[in-house]
Amino acid sequence: MMSPKPSASAAAEGCRIASTPRSALTARSTPLQVINILGNFVRIWSVYSLYSHLSSTGDSIVGFIFSCLVPASVIFLILQKPWKGRPLPNSQIVPTVVNGGVLALYFVLWAKGLLACRPLVALLAEYAGALLGVLSAALYGRKVNIWKKIGGLAAMLLAYYLLSNGWATRTNSPLYSFGSEPLEKATETTGMKEMVLPITAGILSALRRVLARRVSLKNQLKRRLHAITVASATCFLFPFAVWDTILGSTSDNIVKMQLPSWAYLSTVLFGMVLIFYVDNVAEENLHLVFSSPRHLVVSTGCIIILEILYKMDFSLPGLLLCSVILGFGILEATSLDRSKKRPLEVHGPSNGSLHNQLRISELPM
């Protein structure tokens, strides 16, 4: 007769084997998490540099974005070589070209919103794409969660309302202000009218990721199609850039050709090229998508550091309050019925993405 001792030993061995992959996975994911944090930091740093450049020089926004997209598209085309390998069918090329138009419109609206609302508001408004979670739930999700998602939508709108009224600034925040030194320039309240630009850009950014996920099934294919998307966005912006910088402006307002500035180089390298690969790694290996509370935590930390370094009109308690409300809204707006999930779904990307609501509509970036 088999003694109970071996069975207990086998159970202990089984527990050890089951726990080893998790610890090994944690060890492997730590460098990737560091890369993700550093990649997002330099990307947000490029946003602050771009804001300083545009607010001080008055360059054409369309012309500047176009001039950044040209080298970015060249870099993506050289790295990915979409013309090599298996030919891409028209069912993937046509939506990708259309997605390029969405990308071009996103960049223009985002840059205009950046100039109108300053970096802190523009960066947090990028998470407005989580509003698509409410739409997907209303159309395809379980009706039992609809009120929870509507509550999340209300929390997100409240966060953006507080941001538009200057709760994240020392000038207008009713909370304790960070720092005691005098401000060089006080920040005026943004207003919900100006917030329309960055919020619309955030929704377009999420829509762009949804379209990219619909036509790309593998990571390598997604990269090839992204190169075509960026090249398509450059072509879409070309006539508008020519009109805006040459035909539609006087000679005094034409963007002057000069040596690339730090704002230009950082926007191309960090804000367009590097961040795509960093977000790709975060999605594929860390199950961390853009429109998620976890990603918002990383961005908020980077924003706090750069607001201090750039000596912006900044209230730490106000920013934390708005970020907490926004994160709660994102969590609820993209929440799942966790009590009814299958065990295999627990380890999926359940951090606020649309992947579990619409499997073909995951936000990959």
From TrEMBL:
Highest rank taxon of the organism: Eukaryota
TM annotation in the entry: 61-79, 91-109, 121-141, 150-168, 195-212, 224-242, 262-282, 294-310, 316-334
Keyword Transmembrane attributed: yes
Keywords: Membrane, Transmembrane, Transmembrane helix
PANTHER family, A to Z: OS07G0283200 PROTEIN, ZINC TRANSPORTER
Protein name: EamA domain-containing protein
Source organism: Triticum aestivum (Wheat)
